[in-house]
Design a protein that fits this description.
alpha/beta; 5-stranded mixed β-sheet
């Protein structure tokens, strides 16, 4: 028995060494980085891209370089709450005040609460909250969980295919391995037609993370309970807690987090709020890997 355990431990150590070697290979392939690109590309970050591309260094390099180009123009770390607050008035997406059993940040999505029509602004709001979820991850945790509530959802207020596709594109290509699990709770039957189209935009890794939960299906309910404590989980998701979104209170939290984000990225808060100013930012506070 001890020999079998010893072999298992040896294999695990070998895998970790091989993974470390891949991270170093990718680091070398990327070449010298500076500023926010250097800050973004921690060892943990490189590992996420490698996992997303099955440890293929060349494919991971291409994916990461595309993200760095996207981040240099989209500047997700500079988006501030006051720019997207109108999108959040109904609580269609917000960070929950609880974590899952693994300590992951939880985002609650309520597509039936859509309140605007601008796809660009909706995506900026989504990106802001993904960045905020990452900002609030406990130390040592890399991933978040999504809970999707279909209350009020119908074909008349359905998320357009273009919007769903852009959401998937951003999540898969620019935040790889950030999503641990996404629970779609009790979607209506008419959602099936929408899902048949959307699923083709998902890569196999992401597809495996999407779970449908139906209150009368014992297996799916048990799966969800393995991720969440029922005392924390809102009744809309089969739990015991009351789901309440207070826009003013949430806005206060986000404003405080904007200060944390500015400090983390080495941004002057006034400069970040102005969305302009000097090109040279203060020295960033580096992310822990």
């Amino acid at each position: 028995m001890f020999r079998r355990w010893g072999n298992s431990q040896h294999d695990q150590d070998t895998d970790e060494q091989e993974h470390d070697n891949k991270v170093n290979e990718l680091k070398t392939a990327l070449g010298p980085l500076s500023g926010r690109s250097l800050q973004y590309c921690t060892d943990a970050c490189l590992k996420r891209y490698l996992v997303a591309r099955n440890w293929n260094v060349e494919k991971s390099k291409k994916m990461l370089e595309e993200t760095l180009r996207w981040r240099s123009t989209y500047k997700p770390e500079e988006i501030r709450w006051h720019e997207v607050a109108v999108e959040g008035e109904t609580g269609k997406i917000y960070r929950a005040n609880f974590h899952d059993r693994h300590g992951r940040t939880v985002l609650i999505l309520r597509p039936g609460m859509q309140n605007t029509s601008s796809l660009d602004n909706q995506m900026r709001h989504l990106v802001y909250l993904i960045e905020n979820a990452i900002l609030n991850l406990p130390e040592g945790q890399e991933q978040m969980a999504w809970l999707i509530d279909f209350t009020g959802w119908s074909l008349s207020n359905n998320v357009p295919i273009k919007s769903a596709r852009e959401t998937i594109n951003i999540l898969q290509n620019h935040y790889p391995e950030r999503l641990a699990i996404a629970f779609l709770y009790s979607p209506p039957r008419i959602f099936e037609a929408f899902w048949k189209v959307v699923r083709y935009f998902l890569d196999p890794k992401t597809f495996q993370k999407v779970k449908f939960v139906y209150p009368k299906n014992k297996d799916s309910v048990e799966l969800m309970s393995s991720y969440f404590d029922s005392d924390n989980l809102p009744t809309e998701f089969g739990g015991k807690a009351t789901l309440q979104y207070d826009h003013e209170e949430f806005s206060r939290q986000m404003v405080q987090d904007d200060v944390k984000a500015a400090k983390l990225w080495g941004l002057d808060e006034h400069q970040a709020n102005d969305r302009g100013g000097a090109e040279v930012a203060p020295e960033p506070e580096y992310l822990a890997s």
